[in-house]
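Hey, quick one: can you model this chain's 3D structure?
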Amino acid sequence: MKKLFSLFLCLFLCPCLSCAHTEDKPVTNVNENPYLILVNKQNKLPDDWLNRVDLISTRNIIDEENIVESHALIAFNGLRTCLLYEEEVQIELDSTYRSVEQQQEIWDYWGSTYGLEYCEKYLSPVGYSEHHTGLALDIFIITKDNVEIRDNDEMIADTTDFAKIHSHIADYGFILRYPEGKEDVTGYDYEPWHLRYIGNPEIAHYIMDNNFTLEEYLLQ
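Sure thing. Here's the predicted structure for all 220 residues.
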């Protein structure tokens, strides 16, 4: 009965679960799908981006506020429900939308603490962070004993839970934005917690199944 109920929830919250995988690159581009917008250390957020998206406020289970693009939030809620009932893994939002002003504060703080070289290596330049889009969702895990796994090193070490999480994200239009072994492409270390909504489950499966980054997909 539990399996049937969980299947109903997953299908109800995200009908895309029935989408077929494809070995051929889905035909689309940023003009057809704005969720494919590329923001990285070389590509700045478009100046009019906030006029293109619908950002809404939500609160996680421990009452922390997060700002998320509306369709990305719907997809995340479906993913969270499916993981809870299918895998008994509970995920929650940690860090989502971040304004340019907030990124400047982060840059200034860490710059004054560790210097410019540290910032250039580990942080996104102001205006060049994926978190400016509202499509980047950093998550954390709550264990069955209600213990929060939020430390980066602990999350990287939790390969079992993140393998379960990553196996479902494409069904809901998410990709793993900074995969392991792709640091030279993305400019960032492996972040198993950093999900990126791209809106199209078929494209998400193509990227994940081929171990691509968003950069590699868009440059094909």
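One thing worth noting: Residues 52-95+133-220 form a domain with the Muramoyl-pentapeptide Carboxypeptidase; domain 2 fold (CATH 3.30.1380.10).
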